[in-house]
């Protein structure tokens, strides 16, 4: 997963949409093998990147990929879910989730929780590339439309949809 070209491209593209700055505090929900964590840490050189994932296997993979940034205290990985984040984590300038939001039990509730943890002027980037049998670009578009509307209902001031042309299905 951590070396699949589409995974690398999808994660790095999403991080690019965030425009992570050196002092930013970044939250990733569902960090998988740590590709986006790594890309964020390269940009948030004087900031902090916190990742949440419920998978022990992904936690180990991401920890290996981000060993140096973890040792420097710039990256923290937690075996946790968004629901367990807690107020002590503070607020974040940038938030990211790649191919994870489709698994949220309560997407509207998750977006409300993320909105509550986003600093004024902060940015949330959610990326979805359908991987199920028979998936089409229309599936990605439909998901994006639904999440964009839910984000506005959760209190985000605006939303926009970007498209990344990937094979076999875009994101």
What's this, in brief?
The chain has six helices and five strands. With about 170 residues, the chain is α/β, with parallel strands linked by helices.
Question: Can you walk through the features of this model?
Answer:
The protein is of the alpha/beta class and about 170 residues long. It is built from 6 helices and 5 strands, in the order αβαβααββαβα. The chain has helices at about 5-20, 35-45, 55-65, 65-70, 105-115, 135-155, and strands spanning about 25-30, 50-55, 75-80, 90-100, 120-125. It has a 5-stranded parallel β-sheet with strand order 3-2-1-4-5. The two termini are about 15 Å apart.
- Major β-sheet strand ordering: 3-2-1-4-5
Strand content: 15-25%
- Overall pLDDT metric: 92
State the helix count: 6
- Shape descriptor: globular
Q: What composes the largest sheet? A: 5 strands, parallel
Any idea what the radius of gyration is? 15 Å
Instruction: Calculate the terminal CA-CA distance, rounded to whole Å.
Output: 16 Å
Unreliable runs: none
Order of helices and strands: HEHEHHEEHEH
Can you tag this structure with a few keywords?
single chain; 171 residues; alpha/beta; 6 helices; 39% helix
Describe the secondary structure blueprint for this structure.
Layout: H1 5-18, E1 25-29, H2 35-43, E2 48-53, H3 56-65, H4 67-71, E3 75-79, E4 92-98, H5 107-117, E5 118-127, H6 137-153
Parallel strand pairs: 1-2, 1-4, 2-3, 4-5
Helix pairs in contact: 1-2, 5-6
């Amino acid at each position: 997963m951590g070396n699949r070209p589409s995974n690398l491209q999808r994660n790095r593209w999403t991080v690019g949409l965030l425009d992570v700055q050196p002092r930013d505090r970044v939250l990733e929900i569902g960090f998988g093998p740590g590709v986006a964590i790594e890309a964020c840490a390269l940009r948030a050189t004087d900031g902090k990147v916190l990742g949440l994932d419920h998978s022990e296997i992904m936690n180990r993979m991401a920890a290996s990929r981000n060993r140096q940034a973890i040792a420097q205290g710039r990256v923290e990985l937690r075996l946790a879910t968004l629901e367990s984040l807690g107020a002590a984590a503070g607020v974040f300038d940038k938030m990211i989730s790649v191919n994870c939001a489709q698994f949220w039990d309560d997407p509207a509730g998750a977006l409300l929780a993320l909105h509550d943890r986003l600093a004024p002027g902060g940015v949330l980037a959610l990326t979805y590339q359908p991987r199920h049998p028979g998936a089409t670009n229309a599936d990605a578009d439909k998901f994006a439309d639904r999440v964009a509307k839910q984000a506005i209902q959760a209190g985000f001031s605006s939303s926009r949809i970007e498209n990344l042309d990937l094979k076999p299905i875009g994101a």
